Amino acid sequence: MATDIKVEKLDDFRWLIPKTGKMRTEGLVYADEAMVTEITKDASLEQVANVACLPGIVGRSMAMPDIHWGYGFPIGGVAAFGMEDGIISPGGVGYDINCGVRLLRSDLDAADIKGDIRALVNALFANIPSGVGSRRKDLKLSAKQLDDVLLKGARWVVSRGYGTSEDLRHMEGEGCISGGNPEYVSERAHKRGKDQMGTLGSGNHFVEVGCVAEIYDEAAATALSLYKGQVTVLVHTGSRGLGHQVCDDYIKLLLSASGKYKIDLPDKQLCCAPITSKESRQYLAAMACAANFAFCNRQMITHWVRETFQQVLKIGPKDLSLDLVYDVCHNMAKIETHEVDGREQKLCVHRKGATRAFPPHSKLIPEDYQEIGQPVLIPGDMGRYSYVLVGTETAMKETFGSTCHGAGRRLSRHQAKKVAKGRAIIRELEDRGICVRTAGKGTLMEEIPEAYKDVTDVVNVVHNAGIGKKVARLKPMGVIKG
Amino acid sequence: MPGKYEYIEHTADLGFRAYGTTCQELFVNAAEALFEALVSVETIREKVQRTVAVTAAAPDELMVSWLSELLYLFDTEGLLLRGFEIKSMKNNRLEATVRGEIMDPARHEIKTGIKAVTYHQLYVRQGNGIWESQVILDL
């Protein structure tokens, strides 16, 4: 479905959607010329325009270069709302609340573990539950423990010995969103989350063993302790069924609230309520809980990644030093302070398929990254590469400190399956030096490299537009997928 | 009627349009479309039975509530369903008996994981004696 929305070119990487109809502000899309042609083929620009119609929006309704058609908000959407007159929208956060990525660095050289990759991937696949319905039998949370998870986030896992305080310091928000209240998380959400702690899930979620292939910014790479040839691990997953249920429950609640507060909705999925309302406060408390579940989930998986490396490579925990570089969130609404028209203002920033990218000297980033800015982790498809970037001042000024989150799909899942039909995908990836284990054949076909845009194009747009700065490129060696 | 249901293209996710000569039949066919997206429905045996009751504010929202309820049964109990019998449906309240079995990885190959049933571009409508609904799933 092609769009009727017109875009005006501002420069090589910025495209304006002029204010028309019920839009309260303009739209701004970060993309290059070729991407814009692709983007206009579906309804994602309409979604940028729809978000611009919501009450209390501050600044522009924005889209990152990995924009694609979502539901309600586009994937890759960023929008900020005033605390007094603005809204919060569960659909603007998404079902997988705090879906995110973390990067671990090691002291190992890729050349040294080349012969162990298959064994590592097999052991990771055995130790980390992957795919629909998969769980570890030795991890079951009691109701009390689950509530602790929802309140404390990654701190809970670390307090049980699965990680360090250094890990916590290197997570967005130190692995915990405050203001959570498990009472606002339904019985059903609790039930869905109970057995899903430490599970990867399906779809595009993965654990990837790789190595640093290229350094673009020596100073930043040094601050992040990254060097060429070094073994790294990326973990991508979120809040699982618990987050999905929280989103589901609150969309239902806010659908009725939208009527109550007389908010005109261009799409039911955009349902929302004033931030000051009771419904929004409850959602924020529940969303914080789901976000905390996700931080815990990635931390638990990190623990098993470390255990697996120790088992397979037969090295002790002291020699492994699989340290956490950083952990970023993708699907979140956060209360943050930003400068708007020369004045500091508290805002609710929705990032749906977008990453926070705070600049150097931000109080909200770890001390050891003060000079370089917040690390931003951008996974690509499983066959090519991923990127490490850092946040910038330009991002802070233009996008409420936000940048892209991934490659973005190019083919629908159905199209990808057609393209993959009859091909030996695992063999093809092996020929490229990548060992893959996956729970579902269907997922593998949907996730073929060609299904995604080339993440290099996406990263180059944010780098050239100045809303992110390239530091390093990572190359996959082994992947487990759900 | 074009058939029981058909899948539609959506870049990141998956959608379907379901049809029925009655509203009940529409809801049954939509439920089958949901499970066919998950696994091959013909591999599901009707071994266990559950009763389901959902309510909503409007017919399209009832569709989301109904499918979400079935997805919840799969997510929490691993229940794959194929036999759907609508017992009553009035004033946006639906009661049904559903039959299926617990997923057995040896016999059921998951085609794709489904996170949620969305309200995006959702509709339930009737025209020329045919009931039709469009649903987008979040994968």
Question: Could you characterize the architecture of this molecule?
Answer:
- The complex is a heterodimer of chains A (482) and B (139).
- Helices cover 34% and strands 26% of the residues of chain A.
- Chain A has a single domain, classed as tRNA-splicing ligase RtcB (Alpha-Beta Complex), CATH 3.90.1860.10.
- Chain A has 17 helices and 19 strands.
- In chain A, strands 7, 8, 9, 11, 15, 16, 18 and 19 form an eight-stranded mixed sheet that branches.
- With 482 residues, chain A is α+β, with helices and mostly antiparallel strands.
- The longest helix of chain A is centred in the middle third of the chain and has 36 residues, at 278-313.
- In chain A, strand 4 (57-71) and strand 5 form a beta hairpin.
- In chain A, helix 4 (117-127) packs across helix 11 (278-313), helix 5 crosses helix 11 (278-313) and helix 10 packs antiparallel against helix 11.
- Chain A is globular and about 60 Å long.
- Chain A starts with 7 loop residues before the first strand and ends with a strand.
- The model of chain A has no long low-confidence stretch (mean pLDDT 95).
- With 139 residues, chain B is α+β, with helices and mostly antiparallel strands.
- Chain B has a single domain (5-138), classed as Archease domain (Archease, Possible Chaperone, Chain: A, domain 1).
- Chain B is 25% helix and 42% strand.
- Chain B is built from two helices and eight strands.
- Chain B has helices at residues 23-38, 59-77, and strands at 5-9, 14-20, 48-55, 79-90, 93-102, 116-117, 123-127, 130-138.
- In chain B, strands 1, 2, 6, 7 and 8 form a five-stranded antiparallel sheet that branches. Chain B has a three-stranded antiparallel sheet with strand order 3-5-4, with helices on one face.
- In chain B, helix 1 packs parallel to helix 2 (59-77).
- The longest helix of chain B is centred in the middle third of the chain and has 19 residues, at 59-77.
- Chain B is globular.
- Classes of the chains: A alpha+beta (482), B alpha+beta (139).
- The A-B interface holds A 42, 68-72, 75, 91, 94-96, 131-133, 188, 191-192, 201-203, 241, 244-245, 247-248, 251-252, 255-256, 267-269, 271, 409, 411-415, 439-443, 446, 482 and B 7, 9-14, 38, 57, 60-61, 65, 68, 72, 75-76, 78, 103, 105, 109-113, 115-122, 136, 138-139.
